[in-house]
Amino acid sequence: MNQSTLQPLLVALLFLSSLLTSTAIERQKHRERSLFGAPKTTVSILNALPEDLDLTVHCKSGDDDLGEKILQFNGTYEWSFHVNFGVTTLFFCSFSWRNAAGSFEIYKAKRDMNWRCPTYCSWAARDDGVYGYKESDHVNDIHFPWP
């Protein structure tokens, strides 16, 4: 092959190589978005106990200890996170107030991620227990009574 025949062939190979590389990069970006690009989830806890009663809340996951928070009447505590790759994210919280105490699973990815509260999980502590709110149906769907 002479040089005049090789030059168009090399240009075509270079173009094809560039096209394949950019397609592979776009595929990889899409794969990363679908695996790790889930939106953040926010959990909110409201002190809906009778007036003048403080609520002490201490939330943890296997990786994070969020510390103890004291919520005054009608006060809220919120935090946000991404569900882990294995969909095993779990936050449990201990609650205590003058008349009761208890520890409950407040966010469980397998229960909450798709149907209960995919982006915003709302909980309210009341005098008869802790209530979880289901976003899609606009109802309290979980009730953990005080032990």
Automatic annotation (TrEMBL):
Keywords: Secreted, Self-incompatibility, Signal
Cellular component, GO annotation: extracellular region
Signal peptide: 1-24
Record flagged with keyword Secreted: yes
Pfam family, one: Self-incomp_S1
Compartments in which it is found: Secreted
Nucleotide-binding as UniProt keyword: no
Predominant location category: secreted
GO BP term (any one): rejection of self pollen
The organism's place on the tree of life at top rank: Eukaryota
InterPro entries in the record: Self-incomp_S1
Similarity annotation: Belongs to the plant self-incompatibility (S1) protein family.
UniProt-recorded name of the protein: S-protein homolog
Lineage, broadest ranks: Eukaryota, Viridiplantae, Streptophyta, Embryophyta, Tracheophyta
